[in-house]
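Here we describe the complex-level prediction in full. Unlike the single-chain runs in Section 2.1, the two entities below were treated as one system.
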Amino acid sequence: MLRLEKRPSPSKAWNFATPIVAVLLTMIAGGILFAILGKNPFEAIKLIFWDPLFSEQFAAYSRPQLLVKAGPLILIAVGLSIGFRAGIWNIGAEGQYIIGALCAAAVALGFYPGEGWYIFPLMIVAGAAGGWAWAMIPAILKTRFNTNEILVSLLLVYVAEKLLAAAATGFMRNPQGAGFPGSRNIHQYAPASNQELIVGTGLHWGVVAAFVAVIFAYILLQRHILGFHVQLAGQAPRAARFAGVAPTRLVLMCMGLSGAFAGMAGMFEVSGPARLISIDFNAGYGFTAIIVAFLGRLHPVGIVLAGLLLALTYIGGELAQFMLNLPAAAIQVFQGMLLFFLLALDVLSNYRILLALPGRNPEAA
Amino acid sequence: MKRRELLATSAAALGLAATAGSRALAQSPLKVGFIYIGPPGDFGWTYAHDQGRLAAQEHFGSAVETFYVDNVPEGPDAERIMTQMALSGADMIFATSFGYGPSLNAAAQRFPQIAFEHAAGYLQEAPNVSLYNARFYEGRAVIGTIAGRMTQSNVIGYIASFPIPEVVMGINAAYIHAKKVNPDVDFRVVWVYSWFDPAQEAAAAEALIEQGADIIMQHTDSTAPLSVCQQRGALAFGQASDMTQFAPDVHLTAILDNWGPYYIERIQQKLDGAWAAENVWLGIPEGEVAFAPFNERIPAEVQAEANAMIEAIRTRSYHPFTGPLNKQDGSAWLAEGEVADDGTLLGMNFYVEGLTGEIPS
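The structure predicted for the assembly as a whole is:
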């Protein structure tokens, strides 16, 4: 019955407006959800969006926490966005994040309890290399055997999770941990510790890396021939081939870059906020980063804003949970709505809906 | 007050008691936060803790305000949530999974006036961190006895979560007591590497039944294995709460986690300004480990045998880990009449003699 027809030239204004409209619609629909759950919707929305930033009670702590939470999201999302622009779908950043953290932790634990300025930089290299290598599996399978990188990268997340569990309960287990799973506390091991750079700001090396990545991606996409190839491959694959873009190289480059960024995010997390390798070390950053990338329009600056916004809904969502006794599921639904509205509005701004009457148009049947 | 078994007390807790003493003067209720690893609706571990919270809330009425955050992953999110709870004015925080340890200790160092209670953990890096756990192995010994008596195929399936001492201890306790009443019994263990994963737990139950198991035990929190057992006609035991409704025909009993009394006692101490960090491990004698009503399918003499064991553990005349016991490799562990010490149990990383397979590492 309904048919979507691509608009010849989507409105530029709508392109910028949809994220804002999506947030507003999420607030309205979320408010209705909270009201149905018997909570004051205005208070819930205020707790989620306002209190973490401006309330006297929480803001001093939660504002820096925005950076802590957004840092890995932005770093991963920036890497993913480059591939997504080229039509290369790395869905497995979560796995690359885990492997990056495992490799970095292996370096730290290998040197423990040694001293040396080189341990931390070496961990960054190991983290990036680990994530890169894990992303190379779907990349090479795609270029060699034409497998689907979406499936392979996604399924490798579950493999990585099993490796993580094996590490936490087995080969990386803290020998002084009374048999409990979990590695040594890397955050407490000074040469490997990713500390807050300026106390009270939440700014740690991972946040710095995220912003460097944003600038790097911006320059790559705007100024570099590779960025042009990425855009071309995504928008006009045939034209890209005529222009001499090598699809194999592009796949390896995009997958590798996103994997390395995700691995680095895992490294900064395990040596910083997460403190150690544990069974549940991966908190879904790799998947959430996909939302961040799209919410940010696959644009580096947009991704920064989207990462901060999503971090806000997490931190505010936690506040709303215990201040109003909302279940975690309600907050997850709320975050899901955000993506839903964004994608729905995207469809509407890029396509128009036509009502096709049955019988008249055989295509619509 | 219940008699409590004190494993260790933190010396530095002395100075803290005073801070809460002024509570009686202030009219505002004592605020008690809970951090849950799963949803309260899991009917397992988190459900049992939430029942404990509700019991405490009912007991204290308006003198205490309890609240919780569920589905909190073990890591940086936990630390942030605890900090935000502290900033919102919480006086006491119960974190109910072992993986919260590093986060909880970091938060505790920042908020020395707040009482932090950590379930099933081991880290005490601050004077205001208290540890509590239940002796579930006592319950496993009882259901091991029932399983050993009731199995027809002599194969008992065991769905294990993670290879950690707590779980290994449970497997050993169940096996020792099944073996005692049925020397031919064989245990098959499947590790699912999750505390709560209905799909995986169900698949594990299926696999174990395919391997000939006619009784399934689980150290995971979902009701999925019970549903599978109900369908396939295998017998099963519930975990943490009475799961009869999910498998009315085959649910023999369940080991119940009864946290309410402990929560009430500790909150009362905080109200009185008498709270101090401790490290306690309570079980059947204190009522923290209990049982769901026995299914009538359990023959009367087996019920009597199980009840006798419960009574013996309750009066402390029997310890489930009493020698002679050997380790899996045949080396001696406990001599005749010797009882395992708590330290060994809490770090248990070996199977007892007779169990097949290896603990993954």
